[in-house]
């Protein structure tokens, strides 16, 4: 007897799995897009980490070249 | 000898399809949430990167959907009695109450955290409060306790434009509060018009709707009173930095139409309403939907038109409340 019998239940599960996969892919794409947007938006990438760096001092920092 | 058979042809209960889980999120309510949140986001001064804006709208909508799922989890007993809601996934036996609760809680957490990360903490906090308000204050407490359930519970539906505004600006200003008030004052006449023609539903479910506790005459009076109170809110919104001539014309025209509809409802008695199968009540209910879409659409139009410097100068003359 063939065990691979297609039942309506399998179709429903398949639909659910495909739907969930698409939702997860969309979520990944959105988080990736958000990361790109945040980084390219010019937010602070280098924060203070308890050691002095001239780049963090506005008085001594060299302005970025255009 | 033990005979063990796996009979896959007889499932214990129908398994849910993907669409049943989507239905848990109340997609029709979500459209209103998306539209009003988008309005708040677009009319706010400043701007977001378009991906951040898209993410904000998606997570505000997801938060609204999560509160819808939690509402269905809590109200499954009422939904099973009411004709309007009997086909929802839980009473229809497609999704279990536990699944609805788990989906609602998970999506609530994801939407709040992601909105916070995508925009700012205030927007995330406002979304969290909205979900709390809708699920705990409205669904669990007020809905079954007081005929004013719609009035106070309506606040939950009024938050999305404020959240959209906060996502862009990081604060809540008078404009955001007026957009909130616009939906807050609009909700009671909108739902009471529905309650008038869905007459047996709330009664059978023992939900203390105004029609059940105070009678239909009182409900008609309340619809008129709230529609009158809505007018100054609609006008005041037009006298801020987001208003202007286009919005003001739309607000006055639509408010007048809403008032005339509320007056028509107030004039009628039950015999007249029964005779034409609640035609006026149904018409005003539909009109109230257009009312909100047109007013928020006009706010977006104002923002778009302000690209023209001459128009922006003229529209600024309407900003009479900006001095406060």
Question: What this model shows, in words?
Answer:
The complex is a heterodimer of chains A (66) and B (324). By secondary structure, chain A is mainly alpha-helical. Chain A is 50% helix and 0% strand. Chain A has 1 helix and no strands. Chain A has one helix spanning 8-40. The radius of gyration of chain A is 25 Å and the shape is rod-shaped. Chain B has 2 domains: 17-172, Orthogonal Bundle (Tetracycline Repressor, domain 2), CATH 1.10.357.140; 174-324, no CATH class. Chain B is built from 15 helices and no strands. Chain B has helices spanning 18-24, 27-43, 50-74, 76-81, 97-118, 121-142, 149-169, 174-197, 199-204, 210-213, 215-238, 245-267, 270-275, 279-305, 309-316. In chain B, helix 2 (27-43) packs across helix 7 (149-169), helix 7 runs antiparallel to helix 8 (174-197) and helix 12 runs antiparallel to helix 14. The chains are: A mainly alpha (66), B mainly alpha (324). The interface between A and B is medium-sized, with 18 and 17 residues.
Q: Can you give keywords for this protein?
A:
heterodimer, A: 66 residues, mainly alpha, 50% helix, rod-shaped, B: 324 residues, Tetracycline Repressor, domain 2, 2 domains, 15 helices, flat
Level-2 CATH architecture of the largest domain in chain B: Orthogonal Bundle
* Low confidence ranges of chain B: 5-12
Q: What is the CATH topology descriptor of the largest domain in chain B?
A: Tetracycline Repressor, domain 2
Number of helices of chain B: 15
Give me the count of strands of chain B: 0
Radius of gyration of chain A: 25 Å
Number of helices of chain A: 1
User: Average pLDDT value of chain B?
Assistant: 90
Determine Rg of chain B (CA atoms, Å). Answer: 22 Å
Largest sheet of chain A: none
How are the secondary structure elements laid out?
The complex is a heterodimer of chains A (66) and B (324).
Chain A lengths: L7 H33 L26
Chain B lengths: L17 H7 L2 H17 L6 H25 L1 H6 L15 H22 L2 H22 L6 H21 L4 H24 L1 H6 L5 H4 L1 H24 L6 H23 L2 H6 L3 H27 L3 H8 L8
């Amino acid at each position: 007897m063939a065990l691979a019998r297609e039942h309506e239940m399998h179709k429903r599960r398949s639909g659910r799995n495909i739907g969930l996969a698409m939702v997860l892919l969309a979520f990944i794409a959105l988080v990736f897009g958000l990361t790109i947007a945040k980084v390219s938006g010019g937010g602070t990438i280098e924060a203070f980490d308890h050691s002095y760096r001239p780049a963090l001092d506005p008085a001594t920092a060299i302005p970025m070249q255009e | 000898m033990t005979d063990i058979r796996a009979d896959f042809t007889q499932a214990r209960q129908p398994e849910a399809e993907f669409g049943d889980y989507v239905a848990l999120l109340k997609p029709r309510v979500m459209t209103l949430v998306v539209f009003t949140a988008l309005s708040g986001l677009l009319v706010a001064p400043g701007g977001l990167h378009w991906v951040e804006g898209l993410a904000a709208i998606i997570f505000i909508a997801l938060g609204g959907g999560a509160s819808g799922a939690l509402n269905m989890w809590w109200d499954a007993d009422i939904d099973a009695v009411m004709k309007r809601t009997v086909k929802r996934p839980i009473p229809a036996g497609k999704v279990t109450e536990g699944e609805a609760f788990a989906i609602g809680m998970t999506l609530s957490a994801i939407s709040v955290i992601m909105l916070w990360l995508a925009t700012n903490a205030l927007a995330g906090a406002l979304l969290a409060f909205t979900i709390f308000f809708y699920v705990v204050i409205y669904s669990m407490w007020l809905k079954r306790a007081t005929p004013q359930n719609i009035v106070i519970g309506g606040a939950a539906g009024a938050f999305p434009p404020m959240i959209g505004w906060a996502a862009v600006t990081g604060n809540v200003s008078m404009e955001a509060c007026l957009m909130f008030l616009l939906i807050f004052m609009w909700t009671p006449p909108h739902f009471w018009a529905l309650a008038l023609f869905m007459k047996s539903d709330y009664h059978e479910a023992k939900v203390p709707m105004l029609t059940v506790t105070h009678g239909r005459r009182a409900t008609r009076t309340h619809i008129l009173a709230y529609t009158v109170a809505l007018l100054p809110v609609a006008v005041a919104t037009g006298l801020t930095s987001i208003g202007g001539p286009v919005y003001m014309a739309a607000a006055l025209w639509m408010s007048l139409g809403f008032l005339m509809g509320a007056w028509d409802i107030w004039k009628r008695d039950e015999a007249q309403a029964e005779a034409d199968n609640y035609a006026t009540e149904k018409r005003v209910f539909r009109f109230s939907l257009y009312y909100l879409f047109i007013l928020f659409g006009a706010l977006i139009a104002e923002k778009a038109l302000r690209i023209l410097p001459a128009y922006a100068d003229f529209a600024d003359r309407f900003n009479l409340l900006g001095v406060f």
